Amino acid sequence: MKKKIAILGSTGSIGKTTINIVKQNTKEFDVVLLTTNSNIKAIINQAKILNAKNIIITSKKHFLIAKRKKIKKINIYNDFVSYKKIFKKKINYTMSAISGLAGLKPTLDIIKFTKNIAIANKESIICGWNLLNKELKKNNTKFIPVDSEHFSIWSNINNSNQNLIDQVILTASGGPFLRKNISFTKNATIKSALRHPNWKMGKKISIDSATLMNKVFEFIEAMRIFNLKKNKLDIFIHPKSYVHSIIKFKNGLINITAHDTNMRIPIYNSIYQPITKKIKSKKINFQILNNLNLSKPSYKKFPSLNLIKYIGDQTTLFETILISTNDTLVDLFIKKKIKFGEINKNLNKILNFKEFKVYKRKKPSNVRQILNLNDQVRLKTIKLCIK
Fold first, then answer.
1. What is the reported pLDDT for 160?
2. Strand segments (E) across the chain
3. Which of the listed CATH numbers 3.40.50.1000, 1.10.1740.10, 3.40.50.10780, 1.10.10.10 matches domain 316-387?
4. Which tens digit of pLDDT belongs to each residue from 171-221?
């Protein structure tokens, strides 16, 4: 029997990788749903190739354009309320790859309709983990993290007691500025910040990798997903990005998970789990394994790492402030409105605003609360930076 699947954000980077995996094994999959914001051409092409029955185009303008095309055998919807029409019973697998906080509600709402959900969206996990986890438990839906670091941890402890973990190390490449001095990074250009040494990524995540803010986010994700205290987690620089996590268990065993710098590996395994299926991959790189070159990061060069001290053991609305402020500042840097060094400087300013400190003690109770706060913080950040 074919595995019924849905791909939220099918025209983005993670979505396209998932599509390519499914394309190579069409006899094994029945694609029930694909979604995009506005990329009509790409999603219609994907739907035709995979015989997808339903697509959601959330941009009203692009939805109306697509409807006028009168495409046969494809149902076209404009919002995620349509889930109720699309899913008659639980499907086997969902890839949630809509970027930003726009992905939170669609992810939360589809949990009841899927047996397994792979989430590639950092923002959803960081800002709304308490909401997601509640829904996962309520609907007995299995969660699979897709970030290479978290997937490597998950694959090691999937059937083990998490209480057996003694320490988890997340690795960071150090980005394009690992060998640069602090004075250089303060005035770094967009072009230099986007030049990641190992991964091909979008602009936003590339800038977060240059500031190491992505590791702050991954640290928070690991805390939430695996219910770990801060003292159980650490970050080490590993320039080659070959090792994705190191886990030390209380019984003395240490698991080091390594794989090529290719998101296809965690995505492929998330789709086929619990079955182990062969994937085309490179031979073991002994040259890297013989010289892992692990080291502690410099908090002076990467001051964003100091933000970890603000994070508590439970999800609060403060994480929404962190995400929203950083997203806005990175966008302003890409648009050449602020300097690279001003990202962290302004981030710390805003996080210390008296009006935002109260959110350190407030749990998010619904998606609307998170999205409203996101809008408020964005406006405040723009006002601070653009005079």
1. 65
2. 3-8, 29-36, 54-57, 75-77, 93-96, 116-119, 142-145, 165-172, 233-237, 243-249, 254-258
3. 1.10.1740.10
4. 999 988 888 888 888 888 888 888 887 777 778 888 999 999 999 999 999
